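Per reviewer request, we include the raw input and output of the structure prediction for the construct analysed in the revised manuscript.
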Amino acid sequence: MKQEIVLASDNAGKLKEINALLHASDFVVVGQASLGVPGADETGGTFIENAILKARNASQYTGRPALADDSGLEVDALDGAPGV
């Protein structure tokens, strides 16, 4: 039986991509929406902090391991704007 990992995202494309990468492993990734996980407040000051907040939220809600990512655009000529 494969171990479930929660993807702290509602992005169906990410879910499909990650499961394709893990198809030969002992893991299957399930989306947080399928488990009723509410979205986390993204209050971190960095993309990494927001990813951690999202993964912790999903893990605490479900009691299962979780993974997340967060990204955005930072432009040097705009002093890092638009940023996090």
